[in-house]
UniProtKB/TrEMBL annotation:
Its main location: mitochondrion. Belongs to the mitochondrion-specific ribosomal protein mL45 family. It is found in: Mitochondrion. Residues 147-283 form the Tim44-like domain. It comes from Metarhizium album (strain ARSEF 1941). The keyword Ribosomal protein applies. This is Large ribosomal subunit protein mL45. SUPFAM superfamilies: NTF2-like. GO terms for cellular component: mitochondrion; ribonucleoprotein complex; ribosome. InterPro entries: mtLSU_mL45 (IPR051975), NTF2-like_dom_sf (IPR032710), Tim44-like_dom (IPR007379).
Amino acid sequence: MASLAAAWRTGSSHPLRRAAARGALAVQGARQYASVPGRNKIVRELDRASRQSSAKMAKEQSMSDLQKLANAEYFKDGGGPLFPGTFVSLPLSRQPRAPYEFVQYQMSRLRHWLLCATSVLNFKLKSMPSWTTRPRWKARRRAIAPTAKAMYREMLEAFAAGDKVTLNKICLGEFAKKLGAAIDRRDPKERVRFEVVRYNGGLFYPRLKSHQIHEVNPFDRSVVTEQAVVAIASTQQASRVSAATGETVPGSLRLQEKIEYVVLSRQANQRTFETSPWRIWGTTSATTLDAYLREKAVIDKEQARRAGWTGSATK
């Protein structure tokens, strides 16, 4: 027995030791083989992972498509917000009186004019196939003010008559919805009568106050939005009349002189340089110096944030 133990310790060629080694290797090999998934299982796992990845990509793509569609609908025909920094100058009688503020106001107005002129010129140059050919797109600035005047009168008359079809045709979606909601709130027993008595300031109105073109839809670089602000001075008369008798409701007659700043908007294609018809975006107010400086501070802060100047953006 002692000799058998000694032989086991000293030699690897002993039959019992070789048999034990072969058994250990067989068990180890069997265990290693059992830990590896079968071919069918691997195929199933890969197929499941592929389906999950495809579903995730399809979901992300569908969300992206929905966002693109939402943006396209929002910016359709020139919709969207009024361009940031739009400067609508006040009449001279209402501009700042202090010399420093007056100069600051005029410099701000000049900067905005240069911005507008540059945006229009850039788009015009872009529409030139070559430097020796004429631009395919024309601004036609002289036609903007008369167009705004005619469209604004048509809008007022349609609003007074409760004509939603015309309002939806000449106004952009959000503005048309507001006017339609105001029509729905009217007393059904009354009608609205409206009249433009006269246009005022023939030498100065209607006047184009702002005209610029910019890319606003981040998901569609093929189109740009063109916006124009036109000042219109007029005397307007409005009243409510009884639907049954046609008589004017006592105390409803109003006669007022107004300066309205009408915003027109439309889209232009950057490939074909074709434009959609002008539509009324709404109205805005004239820009005061305080309002301009506040908006400028917000715009500068946002631009600094996007540029990564966090130190400047937080000041």
